[in-house]
Design brief:
By secondary structure, the chain is an alpha/beta fold. Helices cover 51% and strands 10% of the residues.
């Protein structure tokens, strides 16, 4: 993994903490956003721990650059921030971050968060989801952007946005696991979304839910 944090003391502490876990290896560390993007591009890590406020290029722009690079499709970014309700937390999620952590999170929780994201799960807490709703409901543009979806795909998207897991959606719609995976792949491709969090954003932005 790569750690991007401009405060040297905190960065060093994070490197020490994460390298102490036998299943995690920090391959590079960056002190600003430009350096972070370069290191991530070269090393293609599974996970990036990204400070949201950094010189030269902030964490949001750096996350967007990583998310938009097709060669880094498997790289997941966790945003580090001081305040849970900062306006740009939402922007970071929209840019493609897998979730965010507060800097006062316990060491054990930071290690668990890295493991969670590495395993392909989203690190999106209930407060973050509320933030998504609060930010997007006033900005709804209508469901025209969902015209590329079939009625069934639209229904799946609605349930995803309401917080149902894949298994819960399968049970609700009486579909198989394989069919659910097909719908999710189609949603990601047709809406240009990187992950589940971005699908939730698209649903709220379009007015499908709210």
């Amino acid at each position: 993994m790569v750690i991007a944090e401009d405060q040297e003391l905190l960065r060093t502490s994070l490197v020490t903490l994460l390298n102490a876990d036998p299943h995690i290896r920090v391959v590079a560390e960056a002190s600003d956003g430009v350096e972070a993007v370069g290191l991530v591009t070269r090393s293609a890590p599974d996970v990036v721990l990204m400070d949201i406020r950094m010189p030269r290029l902030d964490g949001i722009a750096a996350t967007a650059a990583i998310s938009q690079n097709p060669d880094l499709r498997e790289t997941r970014v966790i945003i580090l921030t001081m305040f849970e309700l900062e306006d740009y937390v939402f922007q970071a999620l929209r840019a493609g971050a897998a979730g965010f952590l507060l800097k006062d999170t316990t060491p054990a929780a930071i290690v668990q968060a890295v493991r969670t994201v590495h395993d392909g799960q989203r690190l999106l807490s209930p407060p973050a989801l509320r933030l998504l709703i609060e930010r997007f409901v006033p900005q709804r543009r209508g469901t025209g952007q969902l015209d590329v979806l079939t009625p069934r795909q639209t229904e799946v998207l609605r349930l995803v946005a309401r917080g149902l897991s894949n298994q819960e959606i399968e049970e609700t719609l009486h579909i198989s696991h394989a069919t659910m995976k097909t719908h999710m792949s189609a949603l990601l491709e047709r809406l240009g979304a990187r992950d589940r969090a971005q699908l939730v954003i698209a649903a709220y932005e379009s007015g499908l839910v709210g």
